[in-house]
Design goal:
By secondary structure, this protein is mainly alpha-helical. It contains twelve helices and no strands. It is rod-shaped and about 125 Å long.
Length: 240
């Protein structure tokens, strides 16, 4: 609240200087005093109103409205985030827009590279050795007889899987499985949990400081303009 304090102090100081000057300067004393007192009154009442937003003042009903309405502020924050920003519709439109622009929701290249082709090949060899061809291969040298086929088989497996991943039917099936609406609902559910958890951790003091940080500069100007218009009314009062 440094900015608010600086503006308030400066406004009150100028008003007090005008009040003192009204007693010391022999010219237009009533006008200067009227401007000073009215400016001081306007600045002080606005400062008190701002102070009462955040702090409880004994015997002043309605003071401390922000910490006093702590739970309502938390609900309002949650509703603002979930109803205006993180809606299922908004997230769904974002996902669909990414799809239309050619962005890949799932890049399959790392997945294809991570496939254990060696293990697949060994499984294939074990299946062959356990079949009716196993006995014949045992005569021809067993597993070693299949060794020259290892690299060609692995290369063929890699090419087949890459071809499947790039095929139109696979892409359609993948998009079918990656339902934008379902993904949007899942994301919203997770965001809700994060927001609820954070709001549960918040205290009235944290909410008060958060609101102060957002509007403190504007609150400082309330004091300044209170002093200005108070002084203007004081000048009109003196002339009247």
């Amino acid at each position: 609240m440094k900015q608010l304090a600086d503006k308030s102090f400066l406004t009150h100081a100028v008003s007090l200087v005008l009040v003192v000057a009204g007693y010391l300067i022999p010219v237009q004393q009533d006008l200067i005093k009227s401007i000073g007192f009215f400016a001081l009154s306007g600045a002080m009442t606005n400062w008190l109103a701002v102070y009462m937003l955040f702090e409880r003042v004994p015997l002043l009903y309605g003071s401390g409205v922000i910490p006093g309405r702590f739970e309502e502020f938390k609900r309002s924050i949650r509703e603002l985030m979930m109803q205006q920003f993180f809606t299922v519709g908004n997230i769904e439109r974002f996902i669909e827009a990414e799809e239309q622009q050619g962005a890949k929701l799932l890049n399959l290249e790392p997945l294809l590279n991570a496939v254990d082709y060696e293990r697949i090949y060994q499984g294939l060899v074990s299946a062959i050795m356990g079949s009716s061809f196993g006995g014949m291969l045992a005569v021809l040298g067993g597993k070693e007889a299949l060794a020259p086929l290892k690299e060609p088989v692995i290369d063929k497996l890699r090419a087949v899987l890459a071809g499947i991943a790039e095929s139109e039917s696979f892409t359609v099936a993948l998009k079918h499985g990656l339902d934008a609406h379902k993904i949007g609902m899942d994301i919203v559910s997770k965001i809700e949990k994060v927001i609820d958890k954070r709001l549960d951790e918040m205290t009235p003091q944290m909410v008060k400081e958060m609101v102060q940080a957002i509007i403190r500069d504007h609150l400082g100007w309330l004091v300044v303009w209170g002093g200005f218009f108070g002084g203007l009314m004081g000048a009109l009062f003196a002339f009247a």
